[in-house]
Amino acid sequence: MCCDGTVAMVKSDTITQDVGNQLVDQVVKTWNINECWLYCIDFLGQVENELQYRVKFSIPTRRKPVPRSTASVFFTIRTSDEEAVVQYTLEAHRLIHDPEKTVFREKWLKDIISTKDMMMDEITF
């Protein structure tokens, strides 16, 4: 990561699954979100010149260590250019964000979780 909080540029030919994972982690660490959010990064696969990752967020508590709902952010690292290009989109959304241009909002994660919780409340088993 650069000293100003932005993500360091990485040459496309140096991107591996592990390097991509570290790059996604660097982006997430630049986001100004509460430390109560925990996340895991899953490698979803590679399609042509794109590596795809899912970052799953949740807020486990002592009373509920397994959260009822999670919020996912999907990352794509495109390696077809000289510099790798990182983009992400939120679960159930279509807008593609550039980490260098978009300020991530914690509210987006909260909205996804609250929507899922409302849906779960409506379903009876």
Describe the structure.
The longest helix has 17 residues, at 106-122. The chain starts with 16 loop residues before the first helix and ends with a helix. A 4-stranded antiparallel β-sheet has the order 1-2-3-4. It is elongated, with a radius of gyration of 16 Å. It is α+β, with helices and mostly antiparallel strands and 125 residues long. A hairpin with a 6-residue loop joins strand 3 and strand 4. The chain is built from 2 helices and 4 strands.
Concise structural overview:
By secondary structure, the chain is an alpha+beta fold.
Poorly predicted ranges: 1-5
Tell how many strands the DSSP assignment holds.
Answer: 4
What distance separates the N and C termini?
47 Å
**Overall pLDDT level:** 90
- The neighbouring-strand order within the major sheet is 1-2-3-4
Beta-strand share of residues: 25-35%
Number of helices: 2
Give the fraction of residues assigned to helices.
Answer: 10-25%
- Structural class category: alpha+beta
Coarse shape: elongated
Largest sheet: 4 strands, antiparallel
Q: What are the secondary-structure elements, in order, as H or E?
A: HEEEEH
Alpha-carbon Rg, integer: 16 Å
